[in-house]
C-alpha cells in the first residue's frame, strides 16, 4: 500500500514537483535545487544511515523505503526463542525517525534501484529519483537440498526475525521432553557468525529448565565457528552432555533435508529431528541482484565510502556488502551506515571524503541470561580493503570468573538498548 | 645526543595537546555510540560519556590502551586508535551537551 500521506510529503517538501506520465508509470519529478537520498531497507544499516544523514546534513531530503511498518531485530531474537523475552522486546518502528529526524518513511515494496536513471522504481510503478541511493537489503536464502520456499513453515530458519522467531519458539514449546532439537548451521559467509551458537546455548537453557531429557544436535556445514572455544567451554559448564556439535568433516555435512518429516540426511546417515531449525546458505537480498549490484553472491563496494563498484551513486551497506574483514553483523551494519551517511553528506556538500574512515564491531553472545561472551574489532578502510587494526579487539578470555561472564551479559543488554536507540530513537 | 632527543620528545609529549579536528572527532566517535548511545548519551548500564571532561576521558582511554585500566571491553577498542585519535574522541564527547 502506498503511504499517501508520506508520498505527499515528498511533494510538499520539494519545489515544483509534478508527476509525469512516463510509459504508464508515475514519476516523481526531481528538484534541481534540493538533494535527495533514498534509502532502501530499514534494518540496522538503512535505518541508521537515515537518522545520521539527517544529523550530518539536515537540509538533504532523506527518504527511507521499508516494506514493513515494524522491524524485528535478529539480535536478541534468540532470547525470544528461549522464552526469556517477549517478542515485543525485539520490535521497533520508524515513528521517531519520521517525527524527530524528519526522515520521510515509505512502507512500500521496491522493484529495483535503477542506476541508469538514478531512480528507485516501486512495485506500484511509482518512481522516486535520487541524488544518491543507499541499498541495505540484508540477506536472502539459497533454496537447495530439499529446502524450498515455504519449507520455513515446517522447519523454520528463524534467521529473519518476526513470525519465524515466534514459530520456532512455539515448536520448541510443543516439543516433548526427551525430544531432539536439530540445527543445520550454514557455511561461511553468513549473517551473524556467532548467531547459531548463541541460539543453541539459549535453546539449551530453555530445555535444561523445562525439558531436561532433551538433546541438541548441530549439523554444521563448516569445521569451525565463531567464538568456538568460548561457546564449548560454556556448554560444558552450563549444559553438560546436552549439545552435540558435528563439524562438516565429521558427520555434519548435509546432503538433503525433508522439512515435512524433519529428517536430515548426512554422510553418516539420517538424523530425525523433533524440532528442525534449518539455516540455509545465504546471499545478498534479492533487491541487490535485481539492481545489478552483485558479483557472485554479494555486493562489491568501495571500502572507504560503501559506494557500489558496479553502479554509480548507489551505496550498499550491511550484510549484503562485501566488507571483509568486517563480519556480517548488526553492529557492523550500524557502523557502516554512519560512515556511508557521513561520506555522502560530504560529497553532497562538495567536500572531500574522510580518509581513512574507521569502523568497529562488537558482538555479544548470551549462553544464559547471566553468561555473556564477546568479540570485538576496530577497522580502518584502506584502498580496496578494510583492515582489522593490529593489537585491538579480540575475544573474551577463556576460564574467566563467573562475575566476568555476568558482567558481559549485562553489557550485552546495555549494548542492545543503546544500539536500538542509536538506530530508531 | 640520542638520549637528549628522546628526552625532548618525551617532554614535548607531556605538554603537547592535539588540536581539535571536529570532523575527525565526530567520525571516530561514531562507533562508540553503538554501545554508549548516540553522542554518548547512554540509556543503559553502559556508561554515559556525553559531556565528560576532555582531559579525564582522554586519560581513561589512554589507561585502557596502555593496560593500566582493565575492563571487559574497553581495552579492545582503545587499542584500535592512536593517542591522537583517542584525544579527538575525548574532545568530541566533551563538547556534547549532557
Features:
heterodimer, A: 425 residues, alpha/beta, FAD/NAD(P)-binding domain, 2 domains, four-stranded parallel sheet, 27 strands, globular, B: 98 residues, mainly alpha, Cytochrome Bc1 Complex, Chain D, domain 2, 56% helix
Tell me what you see in this structure.
The complex is a heterodimer of chains A (425) and B (98). Chain A is 29% helix and 28% strand. By secondary structure, chain A is α/β, with parallel strands linked by helices. Chain A has 2 domains: 4-67 and 108-140 and 283-352, FAD/NAD(P)-binding domain (3-Layer(bba) Sandwich); 147-280, FAD/NAD(P)-binding domain, CATH 3.50.50.60. In chain A, strand 9 (119-122) and strand 10 (127-129) form a beta hairpin. Chain B has a single domain, classed as Cytochrome c-like domain (Cytochrome Bc1 Complex, Chain D, domain 2). Chain B has helices spanning 2-15, 22-29, 33-36, 54-65, 74-78, 83-94. The mean pLDDT of chain B is 90. Chain A binds chain B through residues 52, 331, 334-335, 338-339, 342, 354, 357-360, 362, 374, 376-379, 389, 391-394, 396, 404, 407-408, 410-411, 413-415, 417-419, 421-422, 425, and chain B through 23-24, 26-28, 30-31, 33-38, 42-46, 72-73, 76-81, 85.
| Class by alpha and beta content of chain B | mainly alpha
Q: Pairing-aware structural class of the strands and helices of chain A?
A: alpha/beta
Kindly, what is the distance between the CA atoms of the first and last residues of chain A, rounded to a whole number of angstroms?
A: 25 Å
Biggest interface goes to: A-B, 38 and 27 residues
CATH class of the largest domain in chain A: Alpha Beta
The best one-word shape of chain B is globular
Main beta sheet of chain A: 5 strands, parallel
What is the highest CATH level, the class of chain B?
Mainly Alpha
What's the pLDDT, averaged over the residues of chain B?
Answer: 90
Reading the helices and strands of chain B in chain order gives HHHHHH
CATH superfamily of the largest domain in chain A: FAD/NAD(P)-binding domain
Poorly predicted runs of chain A: 11-25
Amino acid at each position: 500500500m502506498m503511504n499517501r500521506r508520506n508520498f505527499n510529503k515528498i511533494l510538499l517538501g520539494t519545489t515544483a514537483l509534478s508527476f509525469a506520465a512516463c510509459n504508464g508509470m508515475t514519476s516523481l519529478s526531481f528538484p534541481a535545487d534540493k538533494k535527495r537520498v533514498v534509502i532502501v531497507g530499514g534494518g540496522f544499516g538503512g535505518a541508521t544511515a537515515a537518522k545520521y544523514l539527517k544529523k550530518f546534513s539536515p537540509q538533504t531530503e532523506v527518504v527511507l523505503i521499508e516494506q514493513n511498518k515494524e522491524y524485528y531485530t535478529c539480535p536478541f531474537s534468540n532470547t525470544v526463542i528461549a522464552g526469556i523475552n517477549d517478542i515485543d522486546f525485539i520490535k521497533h518502528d520508524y515513528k521517531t525517525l519520521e517525527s524527530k529526524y524528519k526522515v520521510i518513511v515509505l512502507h512500500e515494496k521496491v522493484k529495483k534501484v535503477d542506476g541508469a536513471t538514478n531512480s528507485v522504481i516501486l512495485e506500484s510503478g511509482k518512481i522516486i529519483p535520487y541524488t544518491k541511493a543507499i541499498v541495505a537489503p540484508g540477506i536472502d536464502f539459497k533454496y537447495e537440498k530439499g529446502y524450498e520456499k515455504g519449507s520455513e513453515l515446517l522447519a523454520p530458519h528463524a534467521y529473519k526475525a518476526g513470525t519465524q522467531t515466534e514459530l520456532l519458539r512455539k515448536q520448541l514449546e510443543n516439543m516433548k521432553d526427551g525430544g531432539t532439537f536439530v540445527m543445520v548451521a550454514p557455511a561461511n559467509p553468513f549473517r551473524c557468525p556467532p548467531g547459531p551458537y548463541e541460539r543453541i546455548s539459549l535453546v539449551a537453557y530453555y530445555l535444561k529448565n523445562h525439558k531436561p531429557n532433551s538433546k541438541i544436535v548441530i549439523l554444521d556445514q563448516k569445521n569451525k565457528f565463531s567464538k568456538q572455544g568460548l561457546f564449548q567451554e560454556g556448554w560444558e559448564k552450563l549444559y553438560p552432555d546436552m549439545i552435540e556439535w558435528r563439524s562438516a568433516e565429521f558427520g555434519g555435512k548435509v546432503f538433503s533435508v525433508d522439512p515435512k518429516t524433519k529428517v536430515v540426511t548426512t554422510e553418516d546417515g539420517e538424523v530425525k529431528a523433533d524440532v528442525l531449525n534449518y539455516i540455509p546458505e545465504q546471499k545478498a537480498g534479492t533487491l541487490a541482484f535485481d539492481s545489478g549490484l552483485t558479483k557472485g553472491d554479494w555486493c562489491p563496494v568501495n571500502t572507504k565510502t560503501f559506494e557500489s563498484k558496479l553502479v554509480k551513486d548507489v551505496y550498499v551497506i550491511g550484510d549484503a556488502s562485501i566488507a571483509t574483514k568486517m563480519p556480517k553483523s548488526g553492529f557492523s551494519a550500524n557502523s557502516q551506515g554512519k560512515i556511508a551517511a557521513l561520506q555522502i553528506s560530504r560529497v553532497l556538500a562538495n567536500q572531500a571524503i574522510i580518509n581513512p574512515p574507521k569502523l568497529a564491531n562488537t558482538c555479544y553472545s548470551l549462553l544464559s541470561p547471566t553468561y555473556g561472551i564477546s568479540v570485538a574489532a576496530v577497522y580502518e578502510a584502506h584502498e580496496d580493503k578494510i583492515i582489522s587494526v593490529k593489537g585491538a579487539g579480540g575475544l573474551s578470555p577463556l576460564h574467566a570468573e563467573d562475575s566476568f561472564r555476568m558482567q558481559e551479559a549485562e553489557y550485552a543488554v546495555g549494548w542492545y538498548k543503546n544500539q536500538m536507540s542509536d538506530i530508531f530513537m | 645526543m640520542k638520549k637528549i632527543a628522546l628526552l625532548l620528545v618525551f617532554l614535548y609529549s607531556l605538554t603537547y595537546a592535539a588540536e581539535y579536528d571536529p570532523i575527525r572527532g565526530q567520525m571516530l566517535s561514531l562507533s562508540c555510540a553503538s554501545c554508549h548511545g548516540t553522542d554518548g548519551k547512554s540509556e543503559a548500564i553502559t556508561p554515559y560519556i556525553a559531556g565528560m571532561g576532555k582531559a579525564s576521558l582522554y586519560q581513561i582511554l589512554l589507561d585502557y590502551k596502555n593496560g593500566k585500566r582493565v575492563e571487559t571491553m574497553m581495552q579492545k577498542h582503545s587499542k584500535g586508535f592512536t593517542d591522537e585519535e583517542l584525544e579527538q574522541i575525548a574532545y568530541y564527547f566533551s563538547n556534547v551537551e549532557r
